Amino acid sequence: MLQQKNRHALSKIEYDVDRVFNKIWDYGENIVLGWSSNGRTMRVLAAPYWQVAELAAAHPAVIRNGHRFSHAKMVKTVERLNLRPHEVELAFPIDGEDGLKDDAVNRIIRRYSLNYVPHRAVVLFDIVGFSKVNSLQQVAQLNSLAHSINFASRKLIGLGFNVEINRSTTGDGFYVWNCVEGLEADTALFHLMTLILANNKIARKSAHMEKMVPVLRTCIAIDSHYEYYHATDFTPETNSYIVGNVTIKLARMCDKTLPGQILVGDFLRPDQDSREHMHPVDFITRACTQGDAFKDLVVSDHEIVGIKSYLTGKRVSDNKFTVRRYKVKDKHGFLHHLFNAKVNIETDRGPIYLGLQTGDLNSFEATAVDIFPDYAFGVPIL
After folding, report:
1. Which residues in the chain land under pLDDT 70?
2. CA spacing 20 to 30 A to 94: which of 48, 169, 310, 317?
3. pTM of the model
4. Residue-level pLDDT at 3
5. Domains, in order of start, for the chain
């Protein structure tokens, strides 16, 4: 059941459906797996939170393919999982002329369920030297980073990008992601990262007091994760949390990231439009094609003239560069393949350089190989 301050956002019938899910959720005891309806009869399938991991491991489709079940799928899932669904009579039909649409029900149920996302870009911003400053300075630095995130999100929305930004704290930084799914949503997150870092860098140059604006190390990766909502009092929180391969990868990458550096994790992301897999060079190239959208955008009194983003490498000729792929071993002995990114922003008040050049990476603990991006990508990284 939604908290009183949020109820005004729901219609009467949406609120009634929310009450159904809330009662089944039972203060976080159960996780909703799916629902089906027949007229005014709603069937809801749920399982205790401690059982969901086992069920999802044996039947991954339960949390991967949406929560709206057909009647046949509900019957089949009930038999397969050996669970008894909750049957509820509503005062209105689902998907009827005067009823509630499927997408509205799925939006409500999301906060009471576990959701698997196979591919999503996530950024980790880590504050350098956070433990070495006093508590008030830590508060100031976290607030400064939060302000940059809010600022960048507002700017992207104003430019027409489809973003719904969420974040969760790591204690000395934030994981940041776009709740909207898809490749365009992922490239929008890359632009968000750029604006956050630009706002942060300008603020550091103009900060009135030393150590109030953080120095950042930044990592971005695309991988899978689970999305869930914390149970607090009588309702789940309104902001989601994520955990999975992408957050694990980012945490391991961050251990090796230098102050001021931007690291991009290696990946092969399916592109639904081309039916091919997109690797980091393609991803950056695609993001760069959207660069014109940022011309004339003002970031802290700096008007953007142009943006150039690229993965660093070695010059081969005047107009040809390699891309340098790095290999690092984390504290657990696992190998990660990474790329070093640079973003150069030209403004009316001078350039803003984000990230580190190849020559600045002498203390970067990694081995490297230079690759020609025209033909050396598109295969899984072992």
Report:
1. 1-10, 65, 96-99, 374-382
2. 48
3. 0.90
4. 41
5. 4-113 (no CATH), 116-371 (3.30.70.1230)
